[in-house]
From TrEMBL:
Record protein name field: Cof-type HAD-IIB family hydrolase
Residues making up the signal peptide according to the UniProt record: none
Matches recorded under NCBIfam families: Cof-subfamily, HAD-SF-IIB
GO cellular-component term (any): cytosol
Alphabetical list of InterPro entries matching this protein: Cof (IPR000150), HAD-like_sf (IPR036412), HAD-SF_hydro_IIB (IPR006379), HAD_sf (IPR023214)
Highest taxon of the lineage: Bacteria
């Protein structure tokens, strides 16, 4: 067991707390123990609020960092927000439409598409527990009125360099061979985390993040403690200070036990 002072726990969702279409039971029980000890817990995810809400509700976690740091909430209060410039959103969606690339845009409260997502992408949506998509009339001008935090595009990797070269204000995070997130260039989970830590009066040195993806590396760099999941890619593992077990092998609970933050692993 590591003897250290931890005042805040950040947890990724997919591939960390959530695997094979469900929350990992030992992770759920570990979060329960943290909350019983009054240790603040925040979900720190690339998911939208809509996409993460049922996970947050089931765990009883009050804090959320969504859209890879683009929005930070304490229950219903917004502590920080950094949506896309509306002109960037409209340009990306219009350009994708020219090549019949389906897109979904996310506000803080809903996921919107201008056409139904083609059936071949249904398995992709199901595998990531995707939220309900509202299909609206094809009027791209409405994008000027909506605060958009994330854009999904259903496209193959051959398009990535083309879009990143054309749209300098965003970067692409690929989460499936047929799907990507467009994120605002200045968004990162670590930016959101620093805003939340400042709000709570906690030093980054006394916080830990557990995650499995490339979008977790910024968190590993700024916090005093970090664990990569055993199912993470090698470069993600190298960025973390420690590596725990796979998600389905109680990786979250084992990391928290290693830190002395929970008393036992419960399944």
């Amino acid at each position: 067991m590591i003897q250290t002072k931890i005042e805040m726990v950040f947890l990724d969702i997919d591939g960390t707390l959530y695997a094979n279409g469900a929350l990992v039971p030992s992770g759920v029980h570990a979060v329960e123990q943290l909350l019983q000890k009054d240790i603040p817990v925040a979900l720190c995810t690339g998911r939208s609020v809509l996409h993460a809400q049922h996970v947050q509700d089931e765990l009883g976690v009050p804090y959320g960092i969504y859209f890879n740091g683009g929005l930070v909430k304490s229950r219903s209060d917004e502590l920080f927000k950094a949506p896309f410039p509306s002109e960037d959103v409209e340009a990306i969606v219009r350009y994708a439409d020219q090549f019949d690339i389906p897109t979904v845009v996310h506000t803080h409260a809903k996921a919107v598409a201008f056409e139904p997502i083609p059936p071949q992408y249904e398995p992709v949506l199901r595998s990531f527990d995707f939220p309900e998509i509202e299909v609206i009339n094809k009027d791209f001008d409405i994008l000027q009125t909506l605060p958009i935090y994330q854009i999904n595009a259903f496209m193959t990797p051959g398009w990535d360099a083309e879009f990143e070269a054309r749209f300098k204000g965003c970067y692409i995070y690929r989460w499936n061979p047929n799907a990507v997130d467009f994120q605002r260039r200045k968004s990162d989970k670590s930016i959101g985390a620093l805003h939340l830590l400042k709000h709570l009066g906690i030093s980054p040195e006394h916080a830990v993040h557990i995650g499995d993806g490339g979008n977790d590396v910024g968190m590993f760099r700024i916090l005093g403690h970090s664990y990569a999941m055993g199912n993470a890619e090698p470069d993600v593992k190298r960025a973390a200070k420690r590596v725990t077990a796979d998600a389905l092998d109680d990786g979250v609970a084992k990391a928290l036990l290693d830190l002395g933050l929970i008393d036992a692993i419960a399944r």
